[in-house]
Design a protein that fits this description.
Blueprint: E1 2-11, H1 12-18, H2 24-28, H3 31-39, H4 44-61, E2 74-78, E3 84-88, H5 90-99, E4 101-114, E5 121-134
Antiparallel strand pairs: 1-5, 2-3, 4-5
Helix pairs in contact: 1-4
């Protein structure tokens, strides 16, 4: 059963400026996520997609950001094939466990006309779609 869906888009130019600010990386990205970003040359495209994923997660939960968990507690990582997934720690992990939820994440990037909070121009936008589902409970067959 789907329990929540969140979608978000983030300007890569905005994130490129933000990752240069002292303390931003540590506040927003967890240790494994920072290692991923460093391993990919601190590309704004990856940082923006991961930030969009956090926003989408907060929307899917219905809590928004920073209410129930710290941003760095929800890390958007990649598996060996490059597919994105979330790793949760702290309050975010406790929240997922208490609600019996599992996460599904999709990320993409697109060249787009930017006009939100920036002068209208062409730029890259990163998108995230996040889905929360109830974990399947294994049923024990009843004896007849």
């Amino acid at each position: 059963m789907i329990m929540g869906i969140g979608v978000d888009m983030v300007s890569e130019a905005r994130v490129a400026r933000s990752i240069k600010r002292p303390g931003f990386l540590e506040k927003v990205y967890g240790p494994a996520e920072r290692a991923l970003l460093e391993g990919r040359g601190m590309r704004p495209q990856t940082a923006a997609a991961n930030f969009a994923a956090k926003e989408a997660f907060g929307k899917a939960l219905g809590t928004g950001l920073l209410r129930e968990f710290a941003l760095c507690e929800a890390e958007a990582l990649r598996d060996e094939n490059g597919a994105p997934y979330f790793s949760f720690s702290g309050r975010a992990a406790a929240l997922m466990q208490a609600r019996g939820l599992t996460a599904h994440l999709s990320l993409t990037h697109e060249l787009s006309l930017i006009h939100i909070s920036e002068p209208t121009r062409l730029g890259m936008i990163s998108y995230a779609v996040f889905c929360l589902k109830k974990k399947n409970k294994k049923r024990i067959p009843s004896s007849a």
